[in-house]
Amino acid sequence: MDILVLGNGFDLEHELPTKYSDFLMFVTRFLELFQEKEIVCKSQFDSYLLNLCNNQERKELKLELFELVHNNIWITYFLEKQQELGVNWIDFEKEISNMIQVMEYVISYIKNERDKDKQQIKIPHYVCDNMKRLMPSMEEYISNIEQVLNQKEMLLEDLNKMIRSLEIYLSDYVAKLEIEVYNPDIFKLAPDYVLNFNYTSTYRNLYAKNDDLIGYDYVHGEANFHNTMSTCNMVLGIDEYLQEEEKDKNVEFIAFKKYYQRIKKKTGSLHRDWMDEIYLTPLLAIAQKMIQENCAYLQMPYSEGDWAYQRFDGSYECDEKTRRFIFEINQLIASTNDKVLVALQNSDELLECAASIDDEININDFDHAFCKAMNRFQLKQSNTNDIWKKLFYLSENVNRNDLLKYITRKEEQAKDTIELARICYFKEVIQEKEYFENQEEYETEKGR
After folding, report:
1. What does each C-alpha distance from 68 to 102, 143, 319 come to in angstroms?
2. Exposed, middle or buried, 446 (CB in 10 Å: 0-12/13-18/19+)?
3. Which 3 state secondary structure label does DSSP give 195?
4. Which of 47, 108, 148, 446 has a Cα-to-Cα distance from 398 of 20 to 30 A?
5. In angstroms, what CA-CA distances link 400 with 97, 119, 396, 431, 439?
6. How far apart are CA 24 and CA 198, in angstroms?
7. How far is CA 59 from CA 49, 55, 65, in A?
8. According to the per-residue pLDDT averaged within each range, which of 200-214, 221-235, 303-317, 339-353 is highest?
9. What are the beta bridge partners of residue 141?
């Protein structure tokens, strides 16, 4: 199974103008044309933009784009920063992160000063000067945090507008450019999956031979002209900058962070299913057989376990790395660790799993979260099913009746006895939880 990984270098190799500086140049030219300034056609964007501005059939798009970029706080800031630095390159994410951290500092500063019963709080001039570059209306004296938070909402709104305008640029301009540079070596590839860190679909449009047979995961979202600002799934944010102990407390600016945007926009998770298919599914199947058979080889060192695989009719031929992984599963089954619940609650994988079950729950999500948590925290519990049960207990936002209906459907579609056993067990977990909740209600009523 082959996975092709693509980054922005792939688009640049095909001479596509996908750098942020290209986008800023595009926006500048658009605003000049929209405001009917007399310019000489000298930009690569001009034929497209002239058509956009003068074609009545595209009037709606022209107005949308103008609304998105006109007086946009971020675009204005980036253009000024670019001019100040005297370079044709700018790192959007770094600049956004710098300003968000300044605002985070201001909020912390206000809280500390407010504890001193000050009516008006003076922001240090060097901090205020920095913020005024992005928000000219920012006052040097602030009476409450809401003044800063209101500015934050404006910044978030304009960030989303900028992302949508970038989507229009990539999907309506860049995607329609004629590409003259091809890579013959890429033509020879036949990937099963494409992990794409770009917003564009260059590989799919140029090279994919059997597109229906290829799985695509756009980690940061895919540019789609037919989206709106609310349906755009492109991720343009910043990396986490807070320390571990702070990031769960300080969530004022979480909407600017990549990991949050990926969860909210539901991007960049498909490749985990590919990894499960490639690595985890057969290992889980082996582990389930080990659990069910409860054989003596559970305690054997992995190097002595060759004969165990012959018992399974040669279905799984494992190399040394795989055998070691299975040995770790055996160790997990055979020991205990009281910290399992805390570890699972803090698992990013579990949080993303919970965020993915708006409509219906996927049992494989729980399997995946269990495996990732086990690997990440080196969890130990008397039985792997107990860990799996805890995963369900942590998912309080799941509708019980809908879940039972879903599991009944999965029961009918089970591919083998291992999957059926897992589904039946999960069904028992749900019913067990319901029983204990009813018992608690009964005991409460009885005690009154």
Report:
1. 25, 31, 55
2. exposed
3. strand
4. 446
5. 41, 51, 9, 9, 17
6. 18
7. 12, 7, 10
8. 221-235
9. 122
**Which tokens hold the place of 372?**
């990732």
Which pLDDT tens digit goes with each residue over 157-179? 999 999 999 999 999 999 999 99
Residue type, 263: I
The letter for the amino acid at 301 is P
Quick check: 122 pLDDT over 80? no
Winning range, highest mean pLDDT, from 62-76, 112-126, 249-263, 392-406: 62-76
Q: Which two tokens stand for residue 281?
A: 């599914």
Quote the tokens at residue 345. 């609650």
Check whether 283 has a pLDDT greater than 60. Answer: no
User: Mapping DSSP to helix (H, G, I), strand (E, B) and coil, where does residue 411 land?
Assistant: helix
Mean confidence (pLDDT) of the chain? 70
3-state class of 311 per DSSP?
Answer: coil
What pTM did the predictor assign?
A: 0.62
What would the two tokens of residue 262 be?
């990926």
**Identity at 132, one-letter amino acid code:** K
Position 113: which residue type?
Answer: E
Dihedral of CA 263/268/270/272: which sign?
negative
